[in-house]
Amino acid sequence: MDDKLMLMIPGPTPVPEKALLALAKHPIGHRSGDFSQIMAEVTENLKWLHQTQNDVLILTGSGTAAMEAGIINFLKRGDRVLCGCNGKFGDRWAEISKAYGLNVEIISAEWGAPLDPEQFRERLEADAEKEIKAVILTHSETSTGVLNDLETINRHVKAHGEALIIVDAVTSLGATHLPIDEWGLDVVGSGSQKGYMIPPGLGFVSVSPKAWEAYKTADLPRYYLDLGPYRKSATKNSNPFTPPVNLFYALQVTLQMMKAEGLENIFARHQRMTQITRAALKAMNLPLLAPDEAPSNAVTAVRPPESLDAERVRSVMRKKFDIALAGGQDHLKGKIFRIGHLGFVCDRDLLCAIAALESTVRELGYEGAAPGAGLNAANKVAIAS
């Protein structure tokens, strides 16, 4: 049946009908008073979502654009930085940093394991000359379904005193408690196609006063992603370049929806989605990649037994049920599949996906669990919470 696709991937995520209808409106001039009113409302609500009074700037680009902006605006060529790498997007931080001539030191963990905050503490405490200028890491590692302990790592950065903390919050912003002002995070980047519940195309960067001080002496090349003009334009509820007006329509709607739900309810819903998913997969005896102490609220990665091919699971789910699951990346390609539960997702969506997954693995000959075990476990969590 046409037009029944269900996205159960960590991005792009499902878009609410209200936002889809907003996207269909006629565009207006981006220098008009009407657009300025939308910009003002969106900016105010972004600060609410980010739990900050700092600048939250809106770029036309993906989450990677926000990440790159987070580096080039606040650092100098040759600066010593620590990059946390325990997945595809941690590795991307290191790649961007090296591309701009930074002196990159990697703190790594196996894909599927969280970063060890003690390694950051040791490296930062050993830096008596305060040569480390930034600690750069991913909060929710989308490629593995691991949530890194940003709060603890950030405490070690704050004890260092000199280094900025620069964070990829692409799949944690809008899904996981991330109190930017309370923790004193300096640069936080995210993208529209995740917890914001709209299509790809907008990147967001939160910037602290400490980061703006570093901006004054930063010397890496920048133009379109120079955040100074964005900050200046934002004071006039405008944008230095032509923005995707219709995405702002949609963002206005979804931020209103998020405010109506409330931050605590949003975070609780995502946590419940995680608990439902993990309970179901455990009941099906399908091994999880991320440990119980560090699960992402956005995505759960499954490493099926050798008898069950991950790509065949994805193929049958897509062809038979019109449900899209994500695959593995880099060396995990073909070895895992990932279930997204981020953004405009509810219990009904997950229960449907789990029932379809049970049918799929049975069709593929998997007999590692009793029929219905996953759905039964999911129902128990859903009812209890």
Kindly report the oligomeric state of this protein. single chain
- The CATH class of the largest domain: Alpha Beta
Question: Can you give the helix content as a percent range?
Answer: 40-55%
Number of domains: 2
User: What is the terminal-to-terminal distance?
Assistant: 34 Å
Proportion of residues in β-strands = 15-25%
Give the topology string: H per helix, E per strand.
Answer: EHHEHEHEHEEEHEHEEHHHHEHEEHH
CATH architecture annotation name of the largest domain = 3-Layer(aba) Sandwich
Structure summary, number of beta strands: 13
Question: What's the helix and strand layout?
Answer:
Layout lengths: L5 E3 L8 H7 L9 H18 L4 E6 L2 H10 L7 E6 L2 H12 L3 E6 L8 H9 L6 E7 L1 E2 L4 E2 L2 H11 L3 E5 L11 H4 L3 E5 L10 E6 L1 H7 L11 H8 L10 H17 L1 H21 L15 E4 L7 H12 L1 E5 L9 E4 L6 H17 L9 H12 L1
Parallel strand pairs: 1-12, 3-4, 3-5, 5-8, 8-9
Antiparallel strand pairs: 2-10, 6-7, 9-10, 11-13, 12-13
